[in-house]
Design a protein that fits this description.
heterotrimer, A mainly alpha (304), B mainly alpha (283), C alpha/beta (415), A: 304 residues, mainly alpha, MetI-like fold, 71% helix, B: mainly alpha, 2 domains
Chain lengths: 304, 283, 415
């Protein structure tokens, strides 16, 4: 994959001019994003360092500064539990979304009748608003009145109340999320698949390679980069999502589906502990930042 | 593979086609169920033995009629489309410039700024919603479409920038260098030479940005005050009352809300796949 | 030229002076967000009330704004936290304590000393006493009602209970789980309204989990009461139900009893034709009558003095007996003055008398202890988990009570 080099030998004034242009082109985006998020982020950081429980944002500045919020959050077992739940939640959702995305992309890559319609249809879950998706799944998986359990009953299996049972709630909560997450991954992988030259496949077939070897040596290298980007972006989106869990279980039963994002929401909007919410939120952002940097480093190493 | 080699060549795709159809059925079942709940009486759908196929004797489109007459569903859709299109156009413009910058130049602070852009996607909306509200209130911009467009831009621009960067990376620098030797500035080269080559990339970003706007909820709920300005995602909550939930109505609204997006998919989908090819590979 | 200019300046100055002399209330708009602007019955009352108010106060308009119920609490939080509260505040259920503890609500005592609430006002108004002040007006305070299915009871040879002992004896007699018939439909999953039954069960058996202003979950009486709760509710109600399922179970004729608010009466019409005639409502025959305050009106502390005065005038109007009566008739829900009905109105809608009986002398199931009210969301979360644990596990109740006591004492200290 050819990367254009950014540095060429040029006289000093031209470099300066280039520099100005580079920043000028980038600045509108940086300004919009940083401007709108920057100030609130600074305020959130400020709130996280204020000890006390004032909810009136105009008056939070009167509270004393201190690290008590961070200590409270770091020593709260519920916070660490929510971190663990987040890891499980994101892991399951993205793992399954990747599997489904890869599978459907491989299927849709083949010439078949009605491929365009099938492609459009398989991408629709992406467009369903999170709240509607959650409610649909909530009803489909209801213990007594859900269609899924009715189907299981026809086979003589007594299905559990999926969203309420301690053993199944976390899995049940991942279902709407993976349903909405896979289409983006399908799209990106499918696009990458379509650009793998068919000569490579023919060469592999002439060499008598099995399906698995073909995948490993021809298909996978061609889609690895885009797939990783898709997975990373989807993970970030799932990590910070609150809508699906809030609508289905609100973090229950027994906080088994309470992710860090939900923990932050509860602390801020339900318990009016803005300081804890802010510090938990910032810790969460820092953790995700570190994880992403790590992931990027792994990607760069692999592609070398 | 083994099974299909038994079949004559034209039918080799059959197992895969069947697998795809099976996938489609499983994946689209919730949508189907949404439609069922919209047209069948609630006590039949939410019962211990719900019907799998609609009973046309009792099915009715009353929920759809109610949805349009009692609730201003069309207003919501129009609002969502309006804000979506505005946000998409603005985001695309900004992201195109930014992506070009990241692709063509390589100064340390500039690249770090670009990376930071992507990392803003880590921040949950619930964390910043109150300060953001205060900021907009300060500028008297509450309940204005502009505030929502700006909020949507902060969500969409980061990934759109990196997608466009990828597309630009695929275009060899020699092309604009040739144009600049002929006397074009960077800007002109971008506008007249490079952009037409990345048209597929622009389509890909367009569809991504529209979906971001279309399904955004938290900012839409907080920043828009009056009923006439409600977005679709917020309006859908009207079906959930304090004591009663209008299930058929909610599902009818949900079904209707898919139509604009489906039309969009059908229109843009050919561009999208070939577009993501060129950009994704470069990453 | 100069003369004309001077005339113009004088004229403009005169206009300015004249406009300054107009009363402050001229052309004022009060914002009033609510989740009931489109709810049948409620929206009608609000609109009638607003029309009457606007007629009595020319120059003042009230804009009724609809915010969907699921978003309402968060919306109000954002507005108050950013110091831009609406002019007239309606709050639902449990928001009051947390808002009051932030100093966001204006005390009404000054106004009430001149215009007190009408005689016979509901005892549930005490929910809005905070630090010795009255911070809100009760708009709707309800008592739990006992709904029952006459046919299921008759089939099991049981008559409607007259006290708690009869009730807990009757429930198991109806249950036939293999036929899908349950004695009771309850909230049996982690959902906020589970607390209503959970805490009421303790009170109905004469126990007190908040004796003397302290947590007393480890009282043997409380433990015994919760063991009954496990036996009666856990044993006879479908488990894993949130509120919608609870109502759906009762409405589809699968449960003999359900305890719920009086507004469920309006939902009975959704039951299938075969079931509807058997569904009846009665005031809970146990003592004490438990209930809660569902809606309230407040004046925010963060607006100007003139607007506060105007907002108070609105509340004052809503308090009048004729408007209270109108509320009851339009919404079938008990207002602050539940005894306000005339004889004809009661004859036309007999269930209103039942509802009024159900809220007489009602006590809030959430204890009126300030730390609990200020942290009610956390309180509900903790007890919600306890209730589900009692219902769905076989952990010893005494152990659950002890752990709950520790958790509560740590999260919401009472002293």
């Amino acid at each position: 994959m050819p990367q254009p080099s950014g540095r060429t030998r040029r006289p000093g004034s031209m470099v300066r001019q280039e520099r100005v242009l580079a920043y000028a082109f980038l600045l509108p985006a940086a300004f919009v994003v940083a401007g709108l998020i920057g100030y609130p982020l600074v305020r959130v950081a400020d709130i996280s360092l204020r000890e006390g429980r004032i909810m009136n944002f105009a008056r939070i500045g009167t509270l004393p500064l201190g690290l008590r919020n961070y200590i409270t959050v770091a020593t709260d077992p519920a916070f660490w539990h929510s971190v663990w739940v987040s890891l499980l939640y994101v892991g399951i959702v993205i793992g399954m979304a990747f599997a489904i995305g890869l599978g459907t992309a491989l299927l849709l890559n083949r010439r078949m009748p009605g491929r365009r319609i099938l492609r459009t249809l398989l991408l629709i879950p992406w467009a369903v608003p999170g709240v509607v998706a959650s409610i649909i799944f909530l009803w489909m998986l209801d213990g007594s009145f859900g269609v899924v359990n009715a189907g299981l009953r026809a086979f003589g299996i007594a299905g559990p109340p999926w969203y309420v049972d301690r053993d199944t709630a976390l899995v049940a909560v991942t279902l709407p999320a993976m349903w909405k997450s896979y289409p983006l991954i399908t799209l990106i992988i499918l696009a990458a698949l379509q650009s793998i030259p068919s000569e490579l496949y023919e060469a592999a077939r002439i060499d008598g390679a099995s399906a698995w070897r073909e995948f490993r040596h021809v298909t996978w290298p061609g889609i690895r980069g885009p797939a990783t980007l898709a997975v990373m972006v989807s993970s970030l989106a799932v990590f910070r999502d609150v809508d699906i869990i809030y609508t289905t279980t609100r973090g229950g039963p027994s906080r088994l589906t309470e992710t860090v994002a939900l923990f932050v929401y509860n602390e801020g909007f339900q318990y009016f502990r803005m300081g804890s919410a802010a510090s938990a939120g910032l810790l969460m952002v820092l953790a995700a930042l570190l994880a992403s940097l790590l992931a990027l480093r792994v990607i760069r190493h692999e592609s070398l | 593979m083994k099974a299909s080699s038994i079949l004559p060549p034209r039918w080799r795709v059959l197992p895969w086609w069947l697998a795809t159809i099976a996938c489609g059925v499983v994946v689209l079942f919730p949508i189907y169920w949404m439609g069922m709940t919209a047209i069948m009486p609630t006590e039949l759908v939410l019962s211990t033995s719900p019907p799998l196929v609609p009973h046309f004797a009792v099915a009715s489109l009353a929920a759809f009629r109610t949805v349009f007459s009692i609730h201003p569903l069309l207003t919501w859709i129009a609002n969502s489309l309006g804000v979506g299109l505005a946000a998409t156009v603005c985001s695309l413009t900004v992201a195109t410039f930014a992506g070009y910058s990241l692709s063509r130049w390589n100064f340390r602070p500039q690249q770090i700024l670009g990376a930071l852009l992507l990392f803003t996607k880590l921040i949950p909306a619930t964390l910043i919603i109150i300060p953001l509200y205060i900021t907009f209130n300060l500028f008297g911009m509450l309940d204005s479409y502009l505030s929502l467009v700006l909020a949507h831009m902060t969500i969409g621009v980061p990934l759109a920038t990196w997608l466009m960067k990828g597309f630009f990376d695929r275009v060899p620098r020699e092309i604009e260098q040739a144009a600049m030797i002929d006397g074009c500035s960077h800007l002109q080269a971008l506008r007249w030479v490079i952009l037409p080559l990345t048209l597929p990339g622009l389509s890909a970003c367009t569809i991504y940005l529209l979906i971001v706007s279309w399904s955004e909820f938290i900012f839409a709920r907080t920043l828009m005050r009056s009923d006439a300005h409600y977005m679709l995602t917020v309006g859908m909550q009207s079906f959930v009352g304090e004591h009663e939930v209008d299930w058929p109505g909610l599902m009818a609204a949900g079904t209707v809300s898919l139509l604009p997006v489906m039309i969009l998919f059908v229109l843009l989908e050919p561009f999208l796949v070939s577009g993501l090819t060129k950009g994704a590979l470069a990453n | 030229m100069r003369m004309q200019r001077r005339a113009f300046t004088l004229g403009a100055g005169g206009l300015l002076l004249a406009s300054r002399n107009r009363p402050a209330a001229a052309a004022t708009t009060l914002s009033f967000p609510t989740w009931q602007a489109e709810e049948p019955g409620f929206s009608q009352w609000w609109k009638e009330l607003i029309a009457a108010y606007q007629q009595a106060h020319p120059g003042v308009t009230i804009t009724l704004q609809q915010i969907a119920y699921p978003n309402f609490s968060n919306e109000m939080t954002v507005r108050f936290a950013s110091n831009t509260p609406p002019d007239i505040v309606e709050l639902s259920g449990n928001n009051f304590g947390s808002f009051a503890s932030q100093g966001w609500l204006e005390p009404l005592d000054g106004w009430l000393s001149k215009d007190p609430m009408p005689a016979g006002w509901s005892s549930l108004q005490s929910l809005y006493h905070w630090d010795g002040h009255t911070l809100g007006m009760l708009v709707m305070g309800y008592g739990n009602m006992l709904f029952y299915n006459e046919r299921l009871l008759a089939d099991a040879g049981v008559s409607p209970p007259k006290d708690f002992a009869e009730f807990i004896a009757a429930v198991p007699k109806v249950t036939q789980k293999d036929k899908g018939i349950y004695g009771l439909a309850s909230v049996t999953a982690e959902y906020p309204t589970i607390l209503s039954e959970f805490l009421s069960f303790i009170l109905w058996q004469g126990a007190d989990a908040f004796r003397g202003g302290n947590y007393s979950f480890t009282d043997p009486a409380v433990v015994a009461a919760l063991e009954t709760y496990r036996r009666v509710v856990g044993g006879n109600a479908p488990l894993g139900n949130v509120q919608t399922m609870q109502r759906q179970t009762f409405l589809s004729g699968k449960a003999a009893f359900t305890l719920d608010g009086p507004w469920v009466y309006a939902l009975l019409k959704n039951a299938p034709d075969a079931v509807r005639p058997s569904l009846k409502m009665m005031a809970v025959p146990f003592q004490p009558r438990t209930g809660g305050a569902a809606n309230s009106l407040h004046v925010p502390a963060g607006i100007s003095a003139e607007r506060k005065e105007l907002a108070w005038q609105f509340i004052r109007l809503a308090m009048q007996p004729e408007w209270q009566r109108r509320y009851f008739v339009l919404t079938s829900s008990p207002p602050g003055l539940p005894g306000a009905l005339s004889a004809e109105e009661t004859a036309a809608a007999p269930q209103l008398a039942v509802v009024a009986a159900g809220v007489k002398d009602a006590v809030s199931y959430i204890p009126l202890l300030q730390p609990i009210q200020a942290n009610v969301n956390e309180f509900v979360q903790i007890l919600m988990r306890t209730a589900v644990r009692v219902l769905t596990t076989s952990d010893p109740v005494a152990q659950i009570c002890e752990q709950t006591q520790t958790e509560l004492a740590r999260a919401i200290p009472l002293r």
